[in-house]
Design a protein that fits this description.
about 240 residues; alpha/beta; Glutaredoxin; two-stranded antiparallel sheet; 10 strands
């Protein structure tokens, strides 16, 4: 995140991980659906002056790991933590410029900023769906994404208090997942937390979340239907074929 931006205390409070034992039990119950392992890469920093949410993001990931079921002798969720202070070359290799960033599916799904507040729901559901191979998309969407040409980067700009953001994020994440499963892996989902990345939010003049940007063009303000998103992806991908 930009180093010259100071987070107000009331916003920083949104990114505190304060799960009760009851919350963790509910999390265990949800994650028990997992069938195969899911690996995360967490690009982070040990310096709070550079990243106010990195420590809380690590805490969230650690809780998810401990709450996930065992598959064989290992937890269903695992994480590789990379610190900018000592793993800078790997940051460059993966093209990571911001902390915290969480990467799934070798970059097909990326979270720029902590999945905080309402966004935790979509993050957990995404992990479960990757583990169970249950994308939830229509056969028409799967067919169209499988033959899609051109590269598509879909940025979904979110905030922790937005009730519709998790639905938008999950939909876009599944587009990226299906593209990787059945197509050329040419759809990338990039979830951008606005408070942690205000320069990106300003770039797209975001006043309402979710805002969905496809290949640099603001396409939706609010939650699109699956067919609407597919139509936009096909139209804008053709420009990059």
């Amino acid at each position: 995140m930009p180093s010259d931006y100071t987070i107000p205390p009331y916003i920083e409070d949104m990114f505190k991980v304060d799960f009760t034992e009851s919350d963790i039990e509910l999390l265990r119950d949800a994650l028990k659906e997992m069938k195969s392992k899911v690996k995360l890469k967490l690009f982070t920093s040990g310096d709070k002056t550079k990243c106010f949410s990195c420590a809380e993001t690590e805490k969230l990931v650690d809780i998810l790991i401990s709450a996930s079921p065992l598959i064989g002798a290992e937890r269903a969720i695992s994480v590789e933590k990379l610190y900018i202070e000592k793993d800078y070359e790997l940051f460059k290799k993966f093209g990571i410029e911001r902390v915290p960033t969480i990467v799934l599916l070798e970059g097909a799904i990326q979270y720029l900023g902590m999945p905080a507040g309402e966004e935790i729901k979509a993050f957990i559901e995404t992990i479960i769906r990757l583990s169970t191979n249950d994308h939830g998309l229509s056969s028409e969407t799967v067919e169209e994404l499988a033959k899609l040409e051109g590269k598509v980067a879909i940025e979904t700009i979110v905030t922790p208090t937005c009730p519709y953001c998790p639905y938008a994020v999950l939909l876009v994440n599944m587009f990226a997942y299906v593209s990787r499963l059945y197509g050329m892996g040419n759809v990338t989902s990039i979830v951008i937390e606005a408070y942690e990345n205000p320069d990106i939010a300003d770039k797209y003049i975001v006043t309402t979340t979710p805002t969905i940007v496809i290949n640099g063009k603001v396409v939706f303000v609010g939650l699109p239907y699956e067919k609407q998103l597919l139509k936009a992806v096909k139209r804008l991908a053709s420009l990059y074929a």
